């Protein structure tokens, strides 16, 4: 039996945009991508929150979640994540309570502590630069707002109250791992962009986990960049799209989705190449056999319960074909 048998596969979507595309076209592509995932039996489709980034159009996360949930049938749809310091907990509770009421049993709420933007944009969003310091308290407040009313607060989330939307903590460092363990919440590690602390964070979470009303044992989801194609060579070619994007991110340039190219040579310096490859250190690139082997090794090494993939390919058809390959592995 495969190491991956019965393991849920999920997707993290940033709604990547081509420079010559409209926002409407990009979002329509995200919906078509989600519908393919729904049909193929993927577990979750999460939308990220990013602001003021040309080439990424997933700023209004809760609006997109509602749109995607309305266009799909079965797949869980959620936030990967809502950057909580950008939003009052009451507003988040009302939004996700409404989503859960519209699409019962299909909504997830992943929470992050990072800004999802540059410092100037972060100030424009938050007004209060100290909000991130109160993340743990605001998670507790949000749990209370989404749980049953206990008669002890004059402020209630209506809708939201008693919807018990599943809350996840997301992170790329030890802080969120420790907090998720303390609160007995499921934990998602952002290996798709920050692989450095993956071993330490997952080990810490499992070691310090305290059972809660929502979870009796640790549950780890790992974010991974994936490029799956018919051959290893084709996958390596398609992977140059995400490499160009990370290079643009590091240079402070627009993050347009760019066509794959034969070689990255001449585009980057040796130092930039090293930085991009470090950023994508957990990337799984290859044919079905190669991807299956690499995922099996990662699962065995890290003992994760679920994978959530970013799949940054230039053509929608290539993204959908990658999902077919992953579905074959999953089944």
Automatic annotation (TrEMBL):
Residues 21-296 form the Luciferase-like domain. Signal peptide: none annotated. Pfam families: Bac_luciferase (PF00296). InterPro entries: Bact_Lucif_Oxidored, CmoO-like, Luciferase-like_dom, Luciferase-like_sf. Keywords: Plasmid. GO terms for molecular function: oxidoreductase activity, acting on paired donors, with incorporation or reduction of molecular oxygen. One of its GO terms (cellular component) is cytosol. It comes from the Bacteria. To bacterial alkanal monooxygenase alpha and beta chains. NCBIfam families: oxido_grp_1. This is Luciferase-like monooxygenase. The lineage of its organism: Bacteria, Pseudomonadati, Pseudomonadota, Gammaproteobacteria, Alteromonadales.
